[in-house]
Predict the structure.
Amino acid sequence: MTIEKNQRALAQLSAIYRPGTLNLIGGRPGMGKTTMAFHLATEAHLPTAYFSLEMKRDQLLLRHSTCQCPKWIHIDDTATLTVDSIREKVRQLRETYDIRWVIIDYLQLISSSQPSPNREDEIVNIIKELKKMAGELHVAVIVLTQLMRSVLMHDDYRPTLHDVHDWERIGEWVDDVRLLHCDEYYHIVGGKRDLMEVLATECSQDSLPDLQLSCLMWDISSNMKDNIQEISNTDTLRKMLAATEKEILRMAKPFDGNLDWDSRTEELLDRLLDERACILNRMFALHCTEAEVRRFEHVNEALLKMTNRFYEEQQQLQNQLDLLPNTGEHSANRFHLRGEINYCHDYEDPKLFPMEEDAFYGSHWNAMLWAVSSLSQMDAHTIHNGDSNKLDDGQTWAVGPLRIPQFEHICICYLVHALCTHLHYSIPDLLRMTTYWCERSMWECSEAEI
């Protein structure tokens, strides 16, 4: 039933994209613009030119759980394109395949045919030229666009036309704008779970109202993981790993120590690192040796002991704070205590545990662990104030890649779970990690009247 509802909604949406029109689909990074556009083209069954400026063809198809592209979709994954080059490609495809739709992923990656010191002016010219192309070649042009951070300032995070870059300047050239919103993306309590909303705007055709789609039907990560789980040939997986790591190395450039990544680079690196972890975990499940299981047992036990000791020391510090008076200048309520545990990687002096299986996986362990640790936006585990240790409860934290027959006899601790499910470390990564960083911090919060 969910599939049928999605198909009906996408059919409604596809009906408004008529020849000669320029249409925008906007959303924040990671909201699902690419996935929605690809499914829209798949369901429409119209000859479509799909310009993927961000993602290579194989990556695009893998993330949609397929190795073959529908015959009516013609993917061009050239990384750098101007409107002039897009127009020429569309002209050729129009003559050969009678192209009806042109999908461009995404606006901010299109290069200008008329370079200007002001990128905003370039975007305006690009929009004008795309509208002109839609009319000249009699095609519907659907352009994906990143929305501004101003979305995050709304109480409900629901985007509006004011969140579209330079809307005041480009609005007159655009025929339809749809904006993507998902409560679950922002972890809104009591929100619409597992639903993607395609919001109508003041610039919308045919009075088509807001549409609701099931996020689960095209969860990128889920589809990609399912696809990898079906591969049993380790040579194929090794080739996939090599290609993915090559792209990570190209983007991350670990040798120059450059951490100044823009949001687009961080988003793509995050996806690639997730893909890498999935491939390695699948290889591990197919290949797992006794030596690897013994190493996992050792790491799991060591991290459990470290976590328990950290909790004990944290509780001791909190007890000392609790001895302070609850009122007055030195009130214990003024102080906050936090402890953080994370894997620590030094690219210049890596302390990695060598294993006989290193060659089997063929991973660039040092560079990859550096990339994961550098990109991580959260610690593996955080303890606030005097939190009691409820994680060592004798129940295994085996979920996802940790839930395999080889580990059934192991009570997996929370820190192992956090590293391999909350962050992008694979099980083979975990077996080679040796150095961890534990830190406690205390700060004072108070109000003063003057």
